[in-house]
Design brief:
The strands form 4 sheets. Strands 1-2-5-6-9-12-13-14 form an 8-stranded antiparallel sheet, covered by helices on one side. A two-stranded antiparallel ribbon has the order 3-4. A two-stranded antiparallel sheet has the order 7-8. Helices cover about 35% and strands about 25% of the residues. By secondary structure, it is an alpha+beta fold.
């Protein structure tokens, strides 16, 4: 009898839970999708999310925080002040990105290195104008390149040489995407895609009620970014994705092509068969940094490093000995 009374009490309670869950899901499905576009970190962003209210102001505020910390295009940012030796005090965003960057530098044996800024600038791909430095200039700049020459003590960045400058462009866009994704999650948003300069974080489904589909652009010499031919389309759900490639950011001088990926070890733009590196990871800052590292390392070294990082998924496009496009992708993708 007692069990029967207990069962009778539980039935309406369970019914309430079921009906409540149905109403919540129904409400989420009925919420509109919003699209937020703009310009940040010297590039564009596009954010699509399903929510009852428009979060434009909150999104913009978060992006401005990242810009004030990590953007080299903002002369008053933390990183700009560090580079010009106006200040060495950092903020929490800079500290988080710097710590992750140092970890990935260690993992990639310096292929990823945010102290590469003087070389990037010297080759004309940074925030100062210059084209093709002399071998003597490269040798001089290499003296101030190296992730082991900087360290963070409490909130202060310590440089071994005042000429050291930092370039977070290969991780900041990914981190910015993570920051916006965290904001959306904190507002209870389940379905969204955040894209900043091609670095992407997704969650749930698109407005078509299907997993997000992200295209990987086919490598072609297209410095004006007019070609959008796709090599493949990936289902990217509840993951972050970043792509690095030398097929758009380059220039010619005296008949020679110079690509924007600089090898910190040699001081020169990389010259190998890997044309595009797409990385999927749990967060976009990590995916962003490894995509750059793999472009520096080249195909064979990247494949070897991946043996130690099964958590990463990759899609590489490279040219074979005959110049034909080939694909390497990890099994888990």
């Amino acid at each position: 009898m007692r069990d029967k009374k207990k069962l009778l009490w539980q039935v309406p309670f369970l019914t309430f839970l079921i009906v409540g869950s149905i109403l919540i899901v129904s409400k989420q499905n009925d919420a509109p999708y919003h699209n937020d576009n703009g310009f940040i970190f010297g590039t564009t962003y596009s954010i699509t999310y399903q929510c009852d209210s428009n979060l434009h102001n909150q999104i913009k505020a978060e992006l401005q925080k990242v810009d004030l910390s990590l953007s080299m295009f903002n002369k008053e940012s933390v990183i700009s002040k560090i580079n010009s030796n106006r200040a060495f005090e950092t903020d929490s965003m800079f500290a988080k990105v710097f710590t992750l960057a140092q970890e990935i530098s260690e993992q990639t044996d310096g292929a990823f290195d945010i102290t590469v800024a003087p070389l990037v600038n010297a080759w004309g791909f940074g925030y100062t104008a210059s084209v093709a430095p002399t071998p003597e200039a490269i040798d001089s700049l290499k003296e101030v390149i190296g992730y082991k020459k900087v360290k963070l003590v409490d909130c202060t960045l310590i440089k071994k040489d005042p000429r050291i400058q930092l370039d977070c462009s290969a991780i900041a866009k990914g981190y910015g995407s993570d920051v916006v994704a965290d904001l959306l999650r904190s507002r209870g948003v389940k379905n969204f895609m955040v894209e900043i300069g091609g670095e992407i974080v997704t969650s749930g489904n698109s407005d078509k009620r299907k997993p997000w589909k992200i295209g990987v652009t086919k490598p072609s010499e297209d410095s004006l970014s007019t070609s959008n031919e796709l090599q493949t389309v990936l289902n990217v759900t509840d993951k972050a994705m970043a792509t690095s490639g030398n097929y758009r950011n380059f220039y010619y001088k005296d008949g020679k092509k110079y690509a924007h990926t600089i090898d910190p070890a040699t001081g020169y733009p990389v010259q190998h068969c890997l044309l595009s590196a797409t990385v999927l990871a749990d967060n976009c800052a990590t995916a962003d940094a490894y995509a750059t590292a793999f472009m520096v390392m080249g195909l064979e070294k990247a494949k070897k490093l991946l043996e130690k990082h099964p958590e990463l998924m990759v899609y590489f496009i490279y040219a074979d000995d005959n110049g034909e496009l080939k694909v390497y992708q990890s099994e888990n993708i």
